[in-house]
Amino acid sequence: MVELDTNRMAERRRTVAQALDGLFDPGTIAVVGASRTRGKLGQAVLALLKSNGYRGRIIPVNPSGGEIEGLEAVRSLEEIDGPIDVVVLATPVGVALDALENCTRLDVKVVVGVTSGFSEAGEDGQENELRLRRIMQNAPFRLVGPNCEGVVRPASDLQLTFSPMFNDLRPGPVAIISQSGALAGLMALRLGERGVGINAIVSSGNETDLTAADLLDYLGNDPQTRVVLCYVEELRDGRRFVEVARQLAKAGKHVVAVKGGRSRAGSRAVQSHTGAMAGDDRVISAVFRETGVIRARESVAAVDAVTALAAGRRPAGNRVGIISVTGGLGVEMTDLAESAGFEVPVLAEATQTALSRYVPFYGSVSNPVDLTGVVLANPTYVGRCLEAVADDPGVDIAIAIITFVPDQQFIEALAEAFDSTGKPILIVWTGAARSNASGEALRERAVPVYDSPARAASGLAALAATTGEVS
Amino acid sequence: MTPRETLESWHRAGRKVVHEADAKDLLQRIGIPVPKRNPAEGRCVAKLCHDDYPHKSDHGLVRLGLSPEEAKRATTEMAQRFPGGTTLIEEMEDGSVAEWIIGCKRDDTFGPIVLAGPGGILVELIDTAEIRLAPAKPQTAESMVRSGPGARMLAGLRGAEPADRGGLADLISRISVFFAENADLISEIEINPVMVRADGKGLVAADALIVLSPNADEQES
Question: Which InterPro entries match (chain B) (predicted)?
Fold first, then answer.
């Protein structure tokens, strides 16, 4: 009898795609642990869900019932009529496990476990972990987490998290999968500041059920996604993760990954040279390279890489053309590009002739091009010069360096230059106005904008990695 | 017995490290060239192979440049010192232009992988080996002998003859396929060194080691 039951459960178990379709565009969300008390997880989840404009049905679940955040609360999940797309668990662990058990008897697509206190708590969490695994064995729904920060999808106004780090993100081409919620927050906020749009963010937590590889497969294959940014500490199904990444690279998408955590090498006796030579970190770098995963050494470098890749352009080679409104920044950019293995070649004669119409005699029309401050007086000049450099057959990537922005036309001219070419263009904008309205024309187009030559060089390196062959 | 059945029988017998003589027998059966055994003339290598002593030279169990007669006497003496071993007398390879290491192991994160790089004493150089997922397709194996710092050695440094890179790539691909198919039974295979001759002249596995996977009951603990 028990066996029969198990089979029936397995049959009605949601596929990853069914569960995630429900997760990213939910009609009904139940928040277990919804509370009126500030500081409680469930209160924060409910408040953020509402304040970010989610338009579906939100059902607070709280044993005392009543009204919470202006919404009618139910006392338990069983009181909810009909299917529930997403159940969020934001209570202490004991209550969360009881609710999870209830979900096995209800029509739930996916559960997001914000609650902590499982395997990550070591011995103290062992009993909870065992109970969690027992429930999940026969569960018809799928689980994100537990011990995660939640899920965000700007296009659905969906903010299923207790963290305000994900506020005000714009929809766009980047998906983030992170085993650390805090790092997801850091990377999302930085991308948001640069105007890079987000398709979805999942903090995958302990990955008891849905893993980084499941999420990569689903989010990477979403037509809205151009780049997937991953922060991983332990890849549970690493082989599948890289096989999925390989397919995505072949389909013209990019996977950028930060692999955190120290190597566990040395815990076992090494009987051969192979064991010593193929330490964890070397294997990760080699296998990532083989399968087209761009490895970033830390989270901000990963954001630099994603910023460069989000526009969806690939360079044909490693020749960089640089224009700058100031000599010094042009020189620094050139040094950094060259030391990263790029060429900064002399521009074609035709390009130099075109540039000399705009550049005064005390500037320079070779490479880097020093436009001098004169261009600030005529806002369209900088755009024309960028077009000329991007047009040069000897240039694969163009970089424009600007300081402050004299007026709106200046930025629009840069945006037009971006539209005039299919080559990758990076903007280094050192002034303070990057995040205000003046940059909107660039943000709309996902033009990569950096605040310093060093960060732009970090983006360049990611562009270079996309030219490698993935077998 | 198929190569897999041989592995299974070793596993059943509780072997952990399979010594060179047995490892080479198996490699030969999957198409990897090994030195000629018990030659009647020429210079020989004399070894005593024993599962418990994989690092033979630490125990004086390798002697080079002997005549066939000297080699027989040497192995008799070694066998007296280390009972239970298998004696091995082979033709000494002296036509190689490069010594390479080829290894396969199961990585905790990605499963079977294959590694290739400068072998012999050069294994002590750090970060010279190329690593790929196993099984490595022929074109992947080809990329392993044409990238990284080792590639320049194989191409011939300062006018030296280029090594047989095609033969080496074939060996890498072959052993990675065998390893990946049997990774449940083997945790590591290592050939170190492979003596690679000049282009078109082939190569030979001068030393080899197979580490078997622990039995299920040992893995539990």
Answer: Acyl-CoA_Synth/Transferase, ATP_grasp_subdomain_1
pTM as predicted: 0.90
- The residues near B126 (Cβ < 8 Å, ≥ 6 apart) are none
Cβ–Cβ below 8 Å for B123 and A273: yes
Residue ranges of domains in chain B = 3-34+94-216, 44-91
The predicted complex's ipTM stands at: 0.91
DSSP letter string, A301-322: HHHHHHHHHTT----SSSBEEE
Both structure tokens of A93: 């662990």
Calpha distance A58→A46 (Å, rounded)? 8
User: Does the distance separating the beta carbons of A242 and B190 come in below 8 Å?
Assistant: no
Per-residue pLDDT tens digits for B149-168: 899 999 998 888 999 999 99
Q: Nearest to residue A22, comparing CAs of A210, A165, A171?
A: A210
Q: pLDDT tens-digit profile of B74-100?
A: 999 999 999 999 999 999 998 899 999
CATH tag for B3-34+94-216 (out of 3.40.50.800, 3.50.50.60, 3.30.470.20, 3.90.580.10): 3.30.470.20
* Amino acid sitting at position A123: E
Band (pLDDT 50/70/90 cuts) for residue A168 is: confident
Interface touch B132/A290, C-beta < 8 Å:
yes
